[in-house]
Write a structure and sequence with these properties.
The chain is of the alpha/beta class and about 375 residues long. It has 16 helices and 13 strands.
Length: about 375
């Protein structure tokens, strides 16, 4: 028997002070959102366990009883009302208990548009989506200014390294007065995989096809091969480190041959092998120098951001990087002779959801 929407709604008359635990609203129950629901259901933090009050998909919204199971949340959404953002925002702003965290796991620009409204209403915002942070510098600054003005937090750790503490590290270095000289990283699991397969003997086309079959790429693999994802991650890191920079100032090397850029994506997959000879020559040239190819991003204050293929020593950390791992090196005043290094899985629903949950819990710190 389905439960009525009214029964699921939080009581608007409940005193906010009577609900001491952290409340959470989840937008998006795809792979990351679903993983987050399971992690919430297993969370053993007792009184500190976040209380899910509602969720929405791109089409439906529902308000939930305290600590529902992931299956119950999806059931409520299937029988919920049609999503109407003005109504959701009104309920969150006017009636939801505080402290309240809004988690955007949708990756949809329309949802990112609501961040300023939510922050202005005293609601924390946590997101794994890069959209809001890669708009104009003015928009990035405004989000942080509104959050500071209303003493709430805007957290986006998982936009760069999934569960890896990269954004937090950069933020902490800056807050403690360290001067950042360079941030360098291999931050695309897809591209790391492609180049590691090429080192094992695959042609460029074979490596790309293997990544597609393994489910490591976007539906159109050119979204990975273009380097745009790496550019966005470094834009976020540079801005977090205090730089003022726009997307069109970034130098990006695309791995998509110009002759194949306008093909339908299925046709691109059939013809990607046409780039094999060019990549074999580059790899052989690197090998003659005891080096290999790796797709790397780099930000240096005063010099800006460049993302593209680098020739790196075969015995270096970047040269030995395998699978879908990410690697970040941060050189600062304090870490001048030996960079601060962060390495590990940089993608995947579970590690991303864990990073989101850590951001949610950190809003109470």
């Amino acid at each position: 028997m389905s439960v009525s929407q009214a029964t699921l709604s939080p009581n608007p008359t409940t005193s906010r002070s009577a609900v001491p635990s952290l409340s959470l609203y989840l937008a998006g129950v795809g792979s990351v959102g679903t993983a987050l629901l399971y992690q919430l259901s297993e969370f053993q933090g007792d009184a500190k366990r976040p209380r899910l009050i509602g969720a929405c998909t791109s089409t439906h919204a529902a308000w939930t009883p305290p600590h529902p199971t992931p299956g119950a949340v999806k059931h409520h959404l299937e029988h919920g009302s049609t999503l109407h953002w003005p109504a959701v925002l009104e309920r969150l702003i006017e009636h939801a208990p505080r402290p309240l965290v809004f988690v955007d796991a949708t990756g949809h620009p329309d949802v990112a548009d609501h961040y300023t409204t939510l922050l202005d209403a005293g609601i924390h915002v946590v997101t794994p989506s890069k959209l809001a942070n890669t708009r104009s510098q003015q928009h990035f600054d405004r989000l942080h200014a509104i959050a500071a003005e209303h003493n709430v937090q805007y957290r986006y750790e998982t936009t760069v390294g999934a569960g890896l503490p990269v954004v937090r590290t950069v933020r902490d270095l800056r807050a403690t007065g360290d001067g950042i000289h360079t941030i360098r990283g291999a931050v695309s699991g897809t591209l790391t995989f492609v180049f590691s397969r090429m080192r094992q003997g695959d042609s460029f086309g074979e490596a790309v096809q293997t990544a597609i079959k393994a489910g490591y790429t976007e539906p159109d693999v050119r979204d990975d091969l273009s380097g745009e994802d790496v550019a966005r991650k470094f834009l976020i890191l540079a801005r977090t480190a205090g730089a003022s920079i726009e997307r069109d100032e970034i130098e990006v090397e695309s791995l998509v041959p110009e002759s194949l850029r306008d093909l339908p994506h299925l046709a691109f997959r059939r013809y990607v092998h046409k780039a094999n000879d060019a990549w074999r020559e580059r790899a052989e040239t690197a090998a003659s120098q005891d080096a290999v190819l790796q797709y790397v991003g780099r930000w240096t204050p005063g010099s800006g951001i460049r993302v593209g293929v680098e020739v790196v020593p075969a015995d270096s950390d970047f040269g030995r990087l395998q699978g879908q791992d990410n690697l970040f090196e941060v050189t600062t005043n304090r870490y001048a002779e030996s960079p601060l290094t962060i390495r590990g899985p940089g993608a995947g629903p579970e590690v991303t959801a864990a990073g989101v949950l850590a951001d949610v819990l950190a809003t109470e710190a």
